[in-house]
Amino acid sequence: MTSEALRPSPMGKLPAALAAVAPVASAAIIGNLATMPNLTPWYESLAKPPFNPPNGVFGPVWTLLYLLMAWAFFRILRSPDGASRRRAIIFFLVQMALNAAWSVAFFGFHSPLAGLVVILLLITTIAATIHAFLAVDRIAGGALVPYLGWVAFATLLNASILWLN
Asked: What is the 3-state secondary structure (H, E, C) of 6-56?
């Protein structure tokens, strides 16, 4: 057992829950504000690969992923204090900022190229976040794996849309 494991959790349940939901909800709101006004006519007019899901799939998938992210982050916030926990928190917050930035780059700026640059940074940072989470809480790290899978798929979609347009 490391000395980090002996330190008490620095946050109570309610403050941790609020702190876990805030960055996730912020990214979701920013993403929604950038995406929704640009679905038609801009996104609708783009050539898309045949494996592009219908628009109705994205909302439920992202809702589930955001719930998993908030729950995983809650677990990290409730973990004992230490350098590993602090590193996990920093990686999580950076990837949440990149998550929001992707919607702004792709949809808000109408730029699949900018979106691709951001999503490549995002996928790298999600992998680093999972690694950091696993060092603190294996369940929290595992909860982010579906997110990494979806963003890998989104990266392929983004690259395909850039190629086709």
From this structure: HCCCCCCHHHHHHHHHHHHHHHHHHHHHHHHHHHHHHHHHCCCCCCCCCHH
> Is 54 exposed, middle or buried (CB count within 10 Å of its CB: 0-12, 13-18, 19+)?
exposed
Other beta carbons less than 10 A from residue 97's beta carbon: 15
Could you give the CA distance from residue 52 to residue 128 in angstroms, rounded to a whole number? 27
Contact present, 98 and 125 (Cβ < 8 Å): yes
**Rounded distance, CA 3 to CA 50, Å?**
52
What would the mean pLDDT of 22-40 be, rounded to a whole number? 97
CA distance 147 to 89: 17
**What number of helices (H) and strands (E) belong to the chain?**
8, 0
Tokens of 112: 């699949």
164, 50 contact by CB (below 8 A)? no
Q: Is residue 9 scored above 90 in pLDDT?
A: no
Task: Give SS3 for 10.
Answer: coil
Note if the pTM is more than 0.90: yes
**What does the alpha-carbon distance between residue 107 and residue 44 come to, in Å, rounded to a whole number?**
11
Lookup: tokens for 61: 């998938």
